[in-house]
Specification:
four-stranded mixed sheet, single chain, nuclease, 292 residues, alpha+beta, two-stranded antiparallel ribbon, 15% strand
Length: 292
């Protein structure tokens, strides 16, 4: 089980080259990768994303790669000769047209900054790319180790809460039988009180109506489904593949059954337990949001 929250960093030092790769991950519904790269690495962006996609399936992932050293951050001062020639030609035409005096000097041309520009090294050689991809792989491994550690804590918490819910559901099942009898007795008492001054009495019809009313408050089907959901939860939580979405769906179904029981119940104790169970289920849902 992996959390979606993690951090990893890997630094590489080779002669006149320093590389630093930093990866941060937080929870997200899908896999969302953002890379911050030097211009010289843009051509391998897809390759770097594939490295991440092999190890991470969900989460908002931000990767920053920093490079230092002459091997990759080379800059050269360049002259735009064509533009310089146009400047000189236009200046000569101005002199001729308006009969101006003066020479076209370096000082004059230096006032036109667009003639000179700085060109950055736009590509990296294969060895440097190898260093960078290796550093990224190690940073991803470190982030995943953190995600794995946090995932273990989340699994422990979710397992404990699911067992509490399971035990409480068993208690609800035990209480259900008592509630049905008490409910039937209350209905019978009210009907007898209503009929005590009348001579019209159909006993078979009376018990049929009692059974129908009691069935409306019966929660046996909901309890059966809750047991099934908890069983599925315990099975899924042991899977090695990403399980966050599956568990989120299961907890939604658990909440649905709890809401139904709460609306059906006319027993104070059961109503109190449903409030507790919904609180535990909501805490589980919050934790699951951080799972891959």
């Amino acid at each position: 089980m992996l959390s979606m929250t993690g951090y990893g960093r890997e630094d590489v030092q080779q002669e006149d080259l320093d590389i630093s790769v930093e990866i941060k991950t937080i929870n997200h519904r899908y896999l969302d990768i953002t890379l911050h790269l030097p211009k010289a690495l843009l051509h391998i962006e897809d390759q770097l994303k594939r490295i991440i996609q092999k190890k991470m399936k969900r989460g908002k992932i931000t990767v920053s790669i920093y490079t230092f050293g002459q091997q990759i951050n080379q800059k050269q001062l360049q002259t735009d000769w064509d533009l310089a020639e146009q400047y000189i030609d236009q200046l000569n035409q101005l002199k001729s047209t308006y009969q101006l005096s003066g020479d076209i000097t370096m000082e004059l041309l230096g006032k036109f900054p667009d003639i000179f520009y700085i060109k950055e090294h736009e590509e990296t050689d294969s060895i440097i790319e190898k260093y960078i991809t290796s550093a990224l792989q190690k940073a991803v491994e470190k982030a995943n180790q953190m995600r794995l550690n946090e995932g273990a804590e989340l699994k422990k918490d979710l397992t404990e809460r699911s067992k509490k819910i399971q035990n409480k559901i068993k208690q609800l099942g035990e209480r259900r039988n008592i509630v049905i009898i008490e409910y039937q007795e209350r209905i019978l008492e009210r009907i007898n009180k209503y009929l005590e001054n009348t001579s019209i009495y159909d006993e078979s019809r009376l018990y049929q109506e009692i059974a129908l009313l009691a069935e409306k408050g019966d929660i046996s089907e909901e309890l059966t489904r809750l047991h099934s959901h908890i069983k599925q939860f315990h099975h899924i939580i042991e899977e090695s593949q990403p399980i966050g979405r599956k568990l989120d769906f299961i907890v939604q179904e658990i909440n649905r059954e709890l809401n139904t029981i709460g609306s059906k119940s006319n027993d104070t104790w059961i109503s109190e337990q449903i409030v507790y169970l919904k609180s535990e289920a909501e805490k589980m849902k919050e934790q699951i949001q951080n799972l891959e």
